[in-house]
Write a structure and sequence with these properties.
Layout (H helix, E strand, L loop, with lengths): L1 H30 L15 E5 L5 H16 L3 E5 L6 H9 L15 H15 L5 H5 L2 E2 L2 E2 L1 H12 L9 H28 L3 E4 L4 H13 L3 E6 L6 E7 L13 H9 L4 H13 L6 H4 L10 H8 L6 E6 L18 H14 L3 E6 L3 H8 L7 H9 L7 E4 L7 H7 L2 E4 L4 H4 L7 E3 L12 E2 L3 H9 L9 H17 L2 E2 L3 E5 L11 E5 L4 H7 L1 H10 L17
Parallel strand pairs: 1-2, 1-5, 5-6, 8-9, 8-11, 9-10, 11-12, 12-13
Antiparallel strand pairs: 3-4, 6-7, 7-14, 15-16
Helix pairs in contact: 1-3, 2-21, 4-7, 6-7, 7-8, 9-19, 10-19, 13-15
Length: about 550
């Protein structure tokens, strides 16, 4: 009976979702009618392609916003809806005034070409039996190994799958074939459209990674936008051979050197303090998702609640979402996040001189809820399989623990991560962070980076002797945080995001985007879209940067 009820509920939610989307489409047509007045660029105008991330209203509206910036700058924009999209995706984009669409069906391989692709896939898979070997797989100039593994990890919501298992092997084979089909289709699409620019939100996983890597191989400009943990802004990043494996929120070396070369002012210190406070104050819905049901606790209260030894230092391992985007950015000391998690918790268990907190990533909660996942947490599975019962000096902090992240920051003496955002924040308070891979901030002078698994594990074994950061390191960390959190975000002015908790599973209106202006003159006067277009279409550093106001030095 339960299965029948679940099926019935899913059917009703599906009908409600379709009805809500139709209602939203009608409302959107009225709301953005003035955008359809933007004249079409001439046929010989430079062309841009926007491969849609998914058949998702908020994503489509966001892609339309950035495409409008290019259109206003005189670019001809072509959209490619995702392969499985229904007609609603195109209808939403047409509401914004776009009329140029291509579909992947136009570029599907014929029977003989498909057989050739299958043979190529079989050849690639002959020696790719292990996880490391599969990770290094390349095809036609594209590094497809991480995309294949990450796609499968996301499907299983786990990193413990065996690439040699016959069932997993079949999925790997079909995923490699999909990569090769997309690479071939992308080459043909680019030949047909002749784009000079690709604009994407998602740049990884099987489908989009093949498009992005192929574009880079063909020396087509690629720009990426992702939303940070604030509701009104985006990070912008140019994908090039040297930046392809860097996170799009990265502060480039060029930018970091520029910021550290300038006088450091009291106003900048205040901005850093404010943004660090805002990240955990509930100001932003997107960040608040990670703090649901939490409360601030003084160190003494936290020590008492968790039954920690007050005579020992406190270290916190900030775990990543083990199955999400875990192979795309930087170089890892360990095979994957799952391997790192197991070895780190083992090391913590061996070092009794420290109070250890193992903090699961809070995004586990809302990401699993959005995908209707109810299985056991991957971290719990790994601990049960590889460690069993943990010693008393090691405490697990699950997303439901009720302790705010800010309270943990204020209570601990050291942090541990692979490349998480805690590595940007903790050093601002003088707390050292140990990393297990390269990333957005490694090598900049304020993180404790290891060159091997052995060096990393040796540092964990002696963590009780790790000193606090020096004032010079803290200043570097704060300058980096200023660049990352204050200068890097592109702030929306002509549009505004609206977020709310989902009313039912699959609610298409929990995330929405609306124009903040009502006319073309007002749109142009806002200036944010022109700012994006100028950055995206010109050469220069990979990271978008707001120029700070001139100030007097300390």
């Amino acid at each position: 009976m339960t299965a029948v009820l679940k099926k019935a509920a899913a059917f009703l939610h599906g009908r409600r979702r379709h009805s809500d989307l139709r209602t939203e489409l009608a409302r959107t047509r009225v709301e953005v009618a003035f955008l359809r007045e933007i004249p079409e660029p001439p046929p010989d105008a430079p062309g841009a392609l926007v491969p849609c991330m998914a058949d998702w209203m908020y994503g489509l509206k966001t892609e339309a916003m950035f495409a409008l910036a290019l259109k206003l700058a005189g670019w001809r924009v072509t959209f490619i809806p995702p392969p499985a999209a229904d007609g609603l995706a195109e209808e939403f984009l047409r509401a914004y005034g776009f009329a140029d669409f291509r579909t992947w069906k136009e570029f599907e391989p014929g029977e003989s070409d498909y057989r050739e692709i299958v043979r190529e896939a079989e050849t690639l898979l002959e020696h790719a039996i292990s996880f490391p070997a599969l990770k290094q797989m390349t095809a036609r100039g594209c590094w497809i190994g991480p995309q294949v593994l990450a796609t499968i990890a996301r499907r299983f919501l786990d990193t413990t799958f065996d690439p040699a298992d016959p069932e997993v092997r079949a999925i790997i084979r079909s995923t490699v074939i999909k990569c090769l089909v997309t690479i071939r289709a992308a080459h043909q699409l680019f030949a047909a459209c002749g784009p000079r620019l690709i604009c994407v939100n998602e740049a990884n996983y099987t489908y989009h990674a093949a498009i992005v890597d192929t574009a880079i191989c063909e020396q087509i400009k690629v720009v990426q936008f992702i939303q940070p943990a604030r509701d009104d802004a985006y990070y912008l990043w140019k994908l090039r051979p040297e930046t392809r494996r860097q996170h799009p929120s990265t502060v480039s070396r060029e930018t970091f050197e520029k910021v550290t070369a300038r006088p450091w002012t009291p106003a900048q210190e205040q901005q850093v303090e404010a943004v660090l406070r805002d990240r955990y104050s509930g100001k932003w819905f997107l960040q608040q998702r990670n703090q649901t049901g939490t409360a601030a606790k003084a160190k003494e209260a936290l020590v008492a609640e968790l039954q920690l030894d007050p005579a020992k230092k406190i270290a916190c391992v900030f775990s990543h979402v083990l199955w999400d985007a875990n192979l795309f950015y930087g170089e890892d000391l360990f095979t994957d996040y799952g391997d790192w998690f197991v070895e780190t918790v083992k090391a913590a268990s061996r070092n009794e001189h420290v109070n250890w907190l193992i903090k699961y990533h809070p995004a586990n909660t809302w990401k699993r809820a959005r995908e209707n996942v109810t299985t056991e947490l991957a971290e719990d599975v790994l601990i049960r399989q590889h460690l069993g019962t943990l010693p008393e000096h090691v405490k697990i902090l699950k997303p439901s623990c009720g302790i705010s992240t800010q309270s943990i920051f204020e209570s601990i003496d050291c942090g541990v991560t692979v490349r998480g955002t805690a590595g940007i924040e903790l050093p601002c308070y003088g707390v050292p962070i140990l990393t297990a891979g390269t990333g957005r901030y490694s090598g900049l002078g304020f993180s404790i980076d290891s060159q091997s698994c052995e060096e990393y594990l040796a540092r964990l074994a002696d963590l009780q002797n790790q000193p606090p950061l020096t004032p010079a390191q803290v200043r570097l960390a704060r300058q980096h945080a200023y660049a990352a959190f204050c200068l890097r975000p592109w702030v929306m002015k002509s549009f505004r995001a609206a977020f709310q908790p989902p009313r039912y599973p699959g609610d298409p209106l929990d995330y929405n985007l609306h124009p903040a202006v009502a006319s073309l003159p007002a749109l142009r006067a806002a200036g944010d879209l022109a700012q994006f277009a100028a950055w995206a279409t010109q050469d220069g550093p990979p990271d978008f940067l707001q120029e700070p106001e001139p100030e007097s030095a300390v």
